Amino acid sequence: MARLGEITDDDLDALLTTNVKGVVHTVQKALPLLNDGASVILTGSTTADRGRAGLSIYAATKAAVRSLARAWANELADRNIRVNVIVAGSTATPGSDRLAAQTDPEASIEEFRAGRIATIPLGRFADPIEIANAAVFLASDLSSFTTGSTVTADGGFNQV
Prior knowledge:
Order of helices and strands: HEHEHHHE
Number of helices: 5
Protein name: Short chain dehydrogenase family protein
Family: Belongs to the short-chain dehydrogenases/reductases (SDR) family.
Keywords: Oxidoreductase
CATH architecture of the domain at 9-89 and 126-153: 3-Layer(aba) Sandwich
Pfam families: adh_short_C2
Low-confidence stretches: none
Oligomer: single chain
InterPro entries: DHB_DH, NAD(P)-bd_dom_sf, Sc_DH/Rdtase_CS, SDR_fam
Helix content: 40-55%
């Protein structure tokens, strides 16, 4: 993660390879295995909507994922395959602790979390099961008329 003026080709290549090429190759390889009426769920990020310093390339790759979902929803509609994106906000996981250390090495994990919680209208990090429930909805027939959409489970962070 680097600020504008410090972004290297290695930074670009790593994020584009993981977040864009990885998604394209994974879905393409899975496509022959998907039954008609299947559900494809891609992973987005709140950063795609709310740019943060040092995360511009990451944000761009996650915006690309949302664009892929919209295009693929149209391409796969004839097979009734739904393609959606789930965007998880701050979630209490070891990954969020690693992000804290990368984002502000001077601050403790508790200080990082407190700062993030202050920006979330519901006033807390998500429990991983809350994100899983949103994914289960997208995978289930309950979302049979939902495609090309983004489901955001972020405690209101992106909406407010």
